[in-house]
Amino acid sequence: MKVLITGVAGPMGRLTAELLLHAGHEVLGIDRRPWPDAPRGIRVLQADIRKRPAEDVFRTCRPEAVIHMATVTHLTARFEERYRINLHGTRAVFEHCHTYGVRQVLFIGRHTVYGAGPDVPLYHSEDDPPIGGSTFPELGDLVAADLYAGTALWRWPELRTAVLRFVYTLGPLRSGTLASFLHGPRVPTVLGYDPLFQLMHERDAARANVAALQANLRGIYNVAGPQPVPLGTLCRVTGRQAVAIPEPLYPRVTGRFGFPRLPRGATAHVKHPIVVNGDAFRDATGFLHEFSETQTMDAFRYAALPTP
What we know:
With 308 residues, this protein is of the alpha/beta class. The chain has a single domain (2-303), classed as Rossmann fold (3-Layer(aba) Sandwich), CATH 3.40.50. It has 12 helices and 15 strands. The strands form 5 sheets. It has a 7-stranded parallel beta sheet, sandwiched between helices. It has a two-stranded parallel sheet with strand order 6-15. Helix 1 (11-22) crosses helix 7 and helix 3 (79-99) packs parallel to helix 5 (140-155). The longest helix is centred in the first third of the chain and has 21 residues, at 79-99. The protein is globular and about 55 Å long.
């Protein structure tokens, strides 16, 4: 199968592309960032997914399937840029898929779109609405992109669309939202709270992308790995010191004293858990995670240590 990956130069895009190549697929990639040492057999075009050169890839290469991973978070882009990339970029990708006869598309989303709060259910199924933007405005663009991708299910029924809402990923690549939160030796927690954090190994996440493609999924699916762990345990196992901060001081402390910079809305995500039920995805694909929660945290912790 000829598969096009948007955002291919990112750590997760590279890992997914390599797994697809090893599985015998023809792999193409689009990204604004370069991938100069891409493995032989993976063709990469350096372009913006909203621009004409990206559309030309759809028109000339005619991919059979697309994995859309070209989204950004508040950690890497400002408000205006996030909306242009996440919402307008997602719209462009789906319109190109419809125009140029793509048969299958995967939108790689995040479980945080469900939102966190004291009155939000602990466990989320795919039927729960994504309300993350109401409590965490910096998630609004990702929620909008997720909802737009979901409209393809009825807008273009001939295009098999799957919206995959992944839990946090962690591992030796040391990339992503959770890795950024755990980047320093000390992690700011909110005094009196120790929420569950749901995570999966980066390689398991890439394997899940391949499994979803091969199963020809259609619909919305939560993608999860091992059981969630309390934030305090996550800090301890990854070799970090959890520093409890009174909630009124939390927004003033983050971004200073070696703590990660967090938007004000992120405080709810450090207080309250977001846990999803991934049974539907496992039943549809047969996917089973290979790495336990401890192995995943250890992989992150020891990736930065020098080799003896």
